[in-house]
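Z., the sequence and structure:
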Amino acid sequence: HEAHRPPGQAAPPAPDALRQAADAIDPRAEARGMAAGTERSMAHTVAMFNAYRAGEAPISELDGWMFMAFLKIARSAAGTFHADDFIDGAAYLALAAECADPINEYP
């Protein structure tokens, strides 16, 4: 992978990458005037997408989070190395796990 890495694009150690993924979630809510960690727009996004696809099989909120994780995986496989593809992918998978939990006590 070294040949495809732009200067200054070193991958952080795994624990740091996971912290960065977690740290990316809170500011997104705060930037929209919401309490830290409460921004969960996927259900609304999926509802809009399902309306757009009128009559086709609907996707779920979990499908939406998994789609975003797969998008980041696909981006990581194309072109040059960008650590944020992996960091954002970890965040999307964490949000998918939160969504899939049958006893979800999160926003």
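The helical segments are 14-30, 42-52, 61-76, 83-100. The chain has four helices and no strands.

Let me know what you think.
H.
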